[in-house]
Amino acid sequence: MTSPSASSRKVLSKIATNRLQKELMEWQVNPPAGFKHKVTDNLQRWVIEVNGAPGTLYANETFQLQVDFPEHYPMEAPQVIFVPPAPLHPHIYSNGHICLDILYDSWSPAMTVSSVCISILSMLSSSTSKQRPADDERYVKNCRNGRSPKETRWWFHDDKV
Amino acid sequence: MVNGVSSAAEQAEQLKQDGNLYFKKNRLGAAIDAYTEAITLCPNVPVYFTNRALCHRKRNEWARVEEDCMRAVRLDPKSVKGHYMLGLALLQRENYAEGIKALERALDLGRGAHPNSYMVEEIWQELASAKYKEWVHESAKRTLALQKLEKSCEIALQEKLVHDLSHMMDDTDEVFSSTSEQLAALKLIFSKAAEADKPTDVPDYLCCKITLDIFRDPVITPSGLTYERAIILDHLEKVGKFDPITREPLHPSQLVPNLAIKEAVGAYLEKHGWAYKMD
């Protein structure tokens, strides 16, 4: 997705900038296993490479996450999507939107990019079938105007996967 | 007093209002005149002094800022602005110790009154940058003194080696190796002595899990977790009434200052002044 979403248009607040600089420094020293941050000078949008964990359905596959930070991060969740082609997964839509509660209603400012990445990888790893959500076609059609997943009223599938 | 003629206090208040208006229009000279007249009428109102000090501050007339603030804090020892600008004025003439003391007083008073105000943040920024400058200054002196001492010790050991070699003919190997051991030990001791002045990471237990920054005003929740006061209040207002880590219900009234962590941060900063650096 190249169009800027509503949440990422405004410049980062001082608190957000400060916190993201700290997160980036920590990431560089201690990155979560299986992830690689693609270096840019854009603090507000991180592009992260994810490697499917060995021994899971996604082993040897590589995906890209795009993380956009709102002005008042971490008081608001970042927008996290897969850059298509997104992994085939019952909670991941073909446009890259991810149905994961911590990215929306259950966000907490104590979470970090790193902890979000780990949650996403564990969601991938625990998958038992490679398929799209049942409502994929309808959902993706509804998002055609470039709507952010943060504007979706999510009905979370279940807690297990 | 004849009816219709206002009292000195009322006139002074009017003059202050005028002064504030001039200040807003950036007519500093006129504002200073108005406050000066107010002070002549009522010399015991601290706000007239701090307002005039603010004008002097804008004009970079720091000696006058200092003078007015001294009078303001004498009249009202609890004046946040008085202590704050007094601190800035003292720092201007590089009186770090006294300037920092005044800013610390302002910060304590400001937190007591309005823990979230922009003033508190501003005072903290000034205080941190003063402390950082003080550290730069002091650590440079310390580093230089240590380097000189290390050099002298090295020379002394080498002179001792020459002396020992000239006095005994046997076992020269042992004399050599014991000297090189001592030189290595010396190096280690001096590098340890310099450690506190070397910027590294602040330990996690002294940092807020939300700001990821060293604590300034830590508060503890009923779950036993500690957060930076301003950020947890912001979270409770904007995100939800729950503890960000445990997700237990949480209300602002349940937050209690964590004095132990505050002291630990104070002790850490005392030894590691570089941690005051704000980027």
UniProtKB/TrEMBL annotation, chain A:
<comment type="similarity">
    <text>Belongs to the ubiquitin-conjugating enzyme family.</text>
</comment>
<keyword id="KW-0547">Nucleotide-binding</keyword>
<dbReference type="GO" id="GO:0005634">
    <property type="term" value="C:nucleus"/>
</dbReference>
<dbReference type="InterPro" id="IPR023313">
    <property type="entry name" value="UBQ-conjugating_AS"/>
</dbReference>
<protein>
    <recommendedName>
        <fullName>E2 ubiquitin-conjugating enzyme</fullName>
        <ecNumber>2.3.2.23</ecNumber>
    </recommendedName>
</protein>
<comment type="function">
    <text>Accepts the ubiquitin from the E1 complex and catalyzes its covalent attachment to other proteins.</text>
</comment>
<dbReference type="Pfam" id="PF00179">
    <property type="entry name" value="UQ_con"/>
</dbReference>
<dbReference type="InterPro" id="IPR050113">
    <property type="entry name" value="Ub_conjugating_enzyme"/>
</dbReference>
<dbReference type="GO" id="GO:0005524">
    <property type="term" value="F:ATP binding"/>
</dbReference>
<feature type="domain" description="UBC core">
    <location>
        <begin position="15"/>
        <end position="161"/>
    </location>
</feature>
<feature type="active site" description="Glycyl thioester intermediate">
    <location>
        <position position="99"/>
    </location>
</feature>
<keyword id="KW-0833">Ubl conjugation pathway</keyword>
<dbReference type="InterPro" id="IPR000608">
    <property type="entry name" value="UBC"/>
</dbReference>
<keyword id="KW-0067">ATP-binding</keyword>
<dbReference type="GO" id="GO:0000209">
    <property type="term" value="P:protein polyubiquitination"/>
</dbReference>
<dbReference type="InterPro" id="IPR016135">
    <property type="entry name" value="UBQ-conjugating_enzyme/RWD"/>
</dbReference>
<keyword id="KW-0808">Transferase</keyword>
<dbReference type="GO" id="GO:0061631">
    <property type="term" value="F:ubiquitin conjugating enzyme activity"/>
</dbReference>
UniProtKB/TrEMBL annotation, chain B:
<feature type="repeat" description="TPR">
    <location>
        <begin position="12"/>
        <end position="45"/>
    </location>
</feature>
<protein>
    <recommendedName>
        <fullName>E3 ubiquitin-protein ligase CHIP</fullName>
        <ecNumber>2.3.2.27</ecNumber>
    </recommendedName>
</protein>
<dbReference type="Pfam" id="PF13432">
    <property type="entry name" value="TPR_16"/>
</dbReference>
<dbReference type="InterPro" id="IPR045202">
    <property type="entry name" value="CHIP_RING-Ubox"/>
</dbReference>
<keyword id="KW-0808">Transferase</keyword>
<dbReference type="GO" id="GO:0051087">
    <property type="term" value="F:protein-folding chaperone binding"/>
</dbReference>
<dbReference type="GO" id="GO:0005737">
    <property type="term" value="C:cytoplasm"/>
</dbReference>
<dbReference type="InterPro" id="IPR003613">
    <property type="entry name" value="Ubox_domain"/>
</dbReference>
<dbReference type="GO" id="GO:0061630">
    <property type="term" value="F:ubiquitin protein ligase activity"/>
</dbReference>
<dbReference type="GO" id="GO:0006515">
    <property type="term" value="P:protein quality control for misfolded or incompletely synthesized proteins"/>
</dbReference>
<keyword id="KW-0802">TPR repeat</keyword>
<dbReference type="GO" id="GO:0045862">
    <property type="term" value="P:positive regulation of proteolysis"/>
</dbReference>
<dbReference type="Pfam" id="PF13181">
    <property type="entry name" value="TPR_8"/>
</dbReference>
<dbReference type="GO" id="GO:0071218">
    <property type="term" value="P:cellular response to misfolded protein"/>
</dbReference>
<dbReference type="InterPro" id="IPR019734">
    <property type="entry name" value="TPR_rpt"/>
</dbReference>
<dbReference type="GO" id="GO:0043161">
    <property type="term" value="P:proteasome-mediated ubiquitin-dependent protein catabolic process"/>
</dbReference>
<dbReference type="GO" id="GO:0000209">
    <property type="term" value="P:protein polyubiquitination"/>
</dbReference>
<keyword id="KW-0833">Ubl conjugation pathway</keyword>
<keyword id="KW-0677">Repeat</keyword>
<dbReference type="InterPro" id="IPR013083">
    <property type="entry name" value="Znf_RING/FYVE/PHD"/>
</dbReference>
<dbReference type="Pfam" id="PF04564">
    <property type="entry name" value="U-box"/>
</dbReference>
<comment type="pathway">
    <text>Protein modification; protein ubiquitination.</text>
</comment>
